[in-house]
């Protein structure tokens, strides 16, 4: 199976959707930030491993706590994925912090600060 095959793309989106639902509704760990989002998922072509990019609202400490909470819930998440998705193998999950949303917000703020208001242009 090629890395960007249709089948792998479909598996990635299914795993992402299911993980987002599980994190939102099933996990009760207080370390996990309430505004946690699964931004991307990349399942290896052999279905053995899965990289999960997580974006959590808050400071660096909140992000680290969220990653620790998700790492401790990895076994539960894998078992739920095995129940809910019909995959040959249930991939091992690796959680990675995704800061692209915060980076984009920071760049927008910088651009807004540089942009000259319309009434000052005249």
Total discrete domains: 1
Average of pLDDT:
87
Question: What is the second-level CATH architecture?
Answer: 2-Layer Sandwich
The CATH topology comes to GMP Synthetase, Chain A, domain 3
Number of helices: 4
Q: Low-confidence spans: pLDDT under 50, at least 5 residues?
A: none
- Based on secondary structure, the structural category is alpha+beta
**Straight-line N-to-C gap:** 59 Å
- What is the fourth-level CATH superfamily? K homology (KH) domain
Describe the strand arrangement of the main beta sheet, using strand numbers: 1-2-3
- Beta percentage is 15-25%
Order of helices and strands: HEEHHEH
Quick one: CATH class? Alpha Beta
Quick one: how many beta strands?
Answer: 3
Mind describing the biggest β-sheet? 3 strands, mixed
Q: What percent of residues adopt helix (DSSP H or I)?
A: 40-55%
Identify the overall geometry: globular
How big is the Rg?
A: 18 Å
Model description:
It contains four helices and three strands. By secondary structure, the chain is an alpha+beta fold. It has one domain (6-120): GMP Synthetase, Chain A, domain 3 (2-Layer Sandwich), CATH 3.30.300.20. Strands 1-2-3 form a three-stranded mixed sheet. Strand 1 and strand 2 (49-56) form a beta hairpin. Helix 1 (6-25) crosses helix 3 (74-84). The longest helix has 20 residues, at 6-25.
